[in-house]
């Protein structure tokens, strides 16, 4: 996969349909630290980039048949928005534990939503089965080259927005975001450090990288619900993560909550738990990146009221 070429094609496809998000210097974190504000993206999350790119490359026949996806929320929102824009029928399967606010937002965009499975991996397996049975296209949240390339458009923007970029901190779920960003940045400049950040309560990709293969990883509840769940067997993101991630670290729930709270207090903007993971990851390694122009990807803003109240009241 020539990820540089795929990302640059994705930039041309999706740019008219999404928001080029701003980069904001962070006095909270240091003079050389910049926040990539995907929390300002049109659906409140970066996921719309990959979903839009994947649906734009479909043939007219496949568009007419419709698409199916599985999502804990943000990817479903991205698919729903792209489906509405392009007039493509869509069904989104979510795990039974999916946040009600995100589910309501998906439904509001006019797509069918069904709750299936207690774990994201089970939900994805069911959605793939339904897509195959009805000859519809399955749009993976991460295990898809077009989705990965769409997420990589963030890397393209970062190189235009931050002079002499030296490092980027990214939360890891299934690996689509960090694979796209990291793959593109490494293709442009192999010296840029790519740091993957995971919640210790749900460290699926981190554990897979340590094991050197995709394994089943027990995952507990986490404020970073957007990164929760396992890695699908055969996921193309695993090999890319092995190639592009320079360091993978774990952060605790208290540190994630503090990061969300401090961004709200200092920058006066909302972020979700997964974005807090990247901020907490940077804080853990800040002394190693002093003076290095560093981007932290604030991947989304879609935090539930319950989780936000929990964070700001502590």
Description:
Strand 4 (90-94), helix 5 (100-108) and strand 5 form a beta-alpha-beta unit. The longest helix is centred in the middle third of the chain and has 17 residues, at 145-161. The chain has two domains: 3-45 and 145-312, Rossmann fold, CATH 3.40.50; 48-139, Rossmann fold (3-Layer(aba) Sandwich), CATH 3.40.50. Strands 1-2-10-7-8-9 form a six-stranded mixed sheet, sandwiched between helices. Strands 5-4-3-6 form a four-stranded parallel sheet, with helices on both faces. The protein has helices at 3-14, 47-56, 60-65, 74-86, 100-108, 120-133, 145-161, 176-188, 204-211, 236-244, 253-267, 273-285, 305-312, and strands at 23-26, 30-37, 67-70, 90-94, 112-115, 137-139, 167-171, 193-199, 247-251, 294-298. The protein has 13 helices and ten strands.
Short summary of the structure?
This protein is α/β, with parallel strands linked by helices. It has helices spanning 3-14, 47-56, 60-65, 74-86, 100-108, 120-133, 145-161, 176-188, 204-211, 236-244, 253-267, 273-285, 305-312, and strands spanning 23-26, 30-37, 67-70, 90-94, 112-115, 137-139, 167-171, 193-199, 247-251, 294-298.
